[in-house]
Input
Amino acid sequence: MKKMNHNSEKEILKKLQAEAEESITFFSNQNKQERERAVCAAFLRCIGVNFNREDILPGKEEPIDIEFQGARFQIKELMDPGRKRHDEYKKALEKYKNSESLSELIEQFSPMFAQIQKICYCLVGFLKPYASKLGKELCAQVDILVYVNLQEYFSKDEDNVIDYSGLVQQNWRSVSMVSGDFCYIFYASETSPVFLKRFQKQIRKEFTGSDLFEI
Output
């Protein structure tokens, strides 16, 4: 195997620095709407629904963040308790700046596998305060879309029957998630858009490109 030369490593480190800087800007407060549109775009790509940039519209009223073909998405992000993403990117940026070689970036990694059911249980508790705040009448008009950003968690395809009754009791019109390269629609009520009802209870991994969140 050909050994990477020092200049090549430096170029990769510079690229990693640039990507970290872009992430710090992207996840700042002023880019909230663009992040919500990016999450929606990632979900649509995973599910296999074609769209144009101009199809993903900002919501006209609270609590709707994004509108798309009849869907009224409220976008949420589920992270591990105590995590501060901005701090993570800042620490990563400092590490890239202070590293002389890629070998300094190598870390121990022991992935923990979570099935869809476990994520579902997490979502029940995560969404409960939002459901209580809105009330059942308003929840029935909202399609929840959660970006599941848990560290070291990956889906396993053998999930078959998911108990999503806790989400149904909160009375959302539909509840979906996107994470990594896959998405899952836990349920979609009769008043939900057709494309949500069509693919509910299926793990979908339709995207084959390089930038899932591009908008």
Observations:
- The chain has one domain: 6-204.
